[in-house]
Amino acid sequence: MTDATIIPVASGGGYDVHVGRGLVDSLGSVLPPNAAKVLVIHAPAMAPTAERLREQLAGRTEVLLAEVPDAEGAKRVEVAAFCWQILGQTDFTRTDAIVGLGGGATTDLAGFVAATWLRGVPWVAVPTTVLGAVDAAVGGKTGINTAEGKNLVGAFWAPRAVVADLDLVATLPKNDILAGFAEIVKAGFIADERILELIEADVETATDPNSAVFRELIERAIRVKAEVVSDDFTEQGRREMLNYGHTLGHAIEHAERYRWRHGSAVAIGMIFAAELSRLATGLPDAVVDRHRAILESLTLPTTYPIGRWKTLLATMQRDKKARAGMLRFIVLDDVGRPRVLNGTDESLLFSAYQEVGS
Ligand SMILES: NC(=O)c1ccc[n+]([C@@H]2O[C@H](COP(=O)([O-])OP(=O)(O)OC[C@H]3O[C@@H](n4cnc5c(N)ncnc54)[C@H](O)[C@@H]3O)[C@@H](O)[C@H]2O)c1
Ligand SMILES: O=C(O)C(=O)C[C@@H](O)[C@H](O)[C@H](O)COP(=O)(O)O
Ligand SMILES: [Zn+2]
């Protein structure tokens, strides 16, 4: 692909993340050469792009389109079943391929459908949000939500390529761009302080999809994720660090019935994780304050009602990092030094939450 930055991922069979502009027009080059059929699972906002893909690939392969509900509405078993039905009725085989075109919710679903159809067919992720490009589409964590919690059903199933076309991301509403920055900030705090410095230097330029700094931030965050998942695809250890801010974040998404943006919930979750780090590991006050300053500069939420604590705690018990009923959190010893905190007692957790509670 021309003008693309290539970021390799070494796990899940090995694949590349392509970052650049106008890339979707050469999507055919990353599809399996012998695929007779391609199912494009896409978000409603991406219908015109899906149609463009159909025209582009006509003659080479049969392109089927599956428009799925917007945002978290896509991550439901009924929607997976709708996709499985299309695959069944079109005799989709293991040499065919799925394309996930949309934000993280769409690519999580598309990857899950690919992982489960015939126990695994090839798929390509085409993220169209900031959050999808820097995080969701990379690493092969696929899944759907259940009534009990976020991403409780899923599979590790790597794509054969990720195509992050920044021309597609440019149409994203500003609030979605800002929410996606929560994951970029996460990458900054756990592994790349330069990310934080670039946002602090000029938040307007950093979040302008046409700026060079924006592209640098996208690429830096992808490199963080690619490096971690190359080392630990199935989350046996190091990959857990990517869950910084997510234990409380996912509980907030559940409490809000999946109507909140993921990045907004993770922003509050990171404040909680930073406050917990201050209490448990002695994370300096300045680093905790830095979380608030950066997330507020992005106009992301940093507080949540104090009265919701018991509800959130109950949901957090189902967090995938929990072991034998014991909650585990990702905390920071310092910027760039995340680690797991085991066996946290409830009063310590509540003390940290009091700093978040409004
Ligand atoms: N698998 C992973 O490793 C991983 C990592 C991070 C997040 N996630 C998941 O990703 C999801 C959040 O992803 P998201 O923030 O991209 O949200 P999203 O997929 O809900 O997309 C946000 C909104 O933007 C719209 N949209 C998408 N692209 C657009 C475009 N180019 N122009 C205009 N509108 C567009 C969508 O239709 C939606 O309304 C959550 O479900 C989260 O759990 C997964
Ligand atoms: O890739 C990972 O690993 C992550 O934890 C990245 C997170 O940003 C992402 O939201 C992920 O979907 C959370 O996974 P879960 O296992 O906590 O459901
Ligand atoms: Zn996330």
Automatic annotation (TrEMBL):
Domain of life: Bacteria
Biological processes annotated in GO: amino acid biosynthetic process; aromatic amino acid family biosynthetic process; chorismate biosynthetic process
Primary location recorded for the protein, binned into one broad class: cytoplasm
Catalysed reactions, as listed in the record: 7-phospho-2-dehydro-3-deoxy-D-arabino-heptonate = 3-dehydroquinate + phosphate
Key words, A-Z: Amino-acid biosynthesis, Aromatic amino acid biosynthesis, Cobalt, Cytoplasm, Lyase, Metal-binding, NAD, Nucleotide-binding, Zinc
Family annotation (Pfam families): DHQ_synthase, DHQS_C
Sample GO molecular function, one term: metal ion binding
InterPro entries listed in its UniProt record: Dehydroquinate_synthase (IPR050071), DHQ_synth_AroB (IPR016037), DHQ_synth_fam (IPR030963), DHQS/DOIS_N (IPR030960), DHQS_C (IPR056179)
Organism classification: Bacteria, Bacillati, Actinomycetota, Actinomycetes, Micrococcales
CDD domains tied to this protein: DHQS
Pathway involvement of the protein, from the record: Metabolic intermediate biosynthesis; chorismate biosynthesis; chorismate from D-erythrose 4-phosphate and phosphoenolpyruvate: step 2/7
Binding site for NAD(+): 70-75, 104-108, 128-129, 141, 150
UniProt source species: Microcella alkaliphila
Family: Belongs to the sugar phosphate cyclases superfamily. Dehydroquinate synthase family.
Cofactor note: Binds 1 divalent metal cation per subunit. Can use either Co(2+) or Zn(2+).
Domain 3-dehydroquinate synthase N-terminal: 67-177
Protein name per the record: 3-dehydroquinate synthase
GO cellular component: a single term: cytoplasm
Signal peptide stretch: none
EC number: 4.2.3.4
NCBIfam families according to UniProt: aroB
Localization annotation: Cytoplasm
Segments forming domain 3-dehydroquinate synthase C-terminal: 180-322
Residues bound to Zn(2+): 183, 246, 262
